[in-house]
Amino acid sequence: MDKMKATYEVMLGLASEMVWDEALRKRRSDILHREIDTALATGDKLAFRNLTEELKSLA
């Protein structure tokens, strides 16, 4: 029974890490989209390129 409990706790920990990672990825993606919009509005080509590359790497 203790082995099952330990296995369950490990699985629960992994699941929570996956949820946390996805939340962080989503938050960063939202920020990048806003920054890309700003770069487009101001005509900042370098920022646009850098930000879009980072956004691609999140996928």
TrEMBL record:
InterPro entries: IDEAL_dom, Virus_scaffolding_prot_C. It holds the Pfam family IDEAL. Residues 19-55 form the IDEAL domain. It comes from the Bacteria. Gene3D superfamilies: Virus Scaffolding Protein, Chain A. This is IDEAL domain-containing protein. It comes from Paenibacillus odorifer.
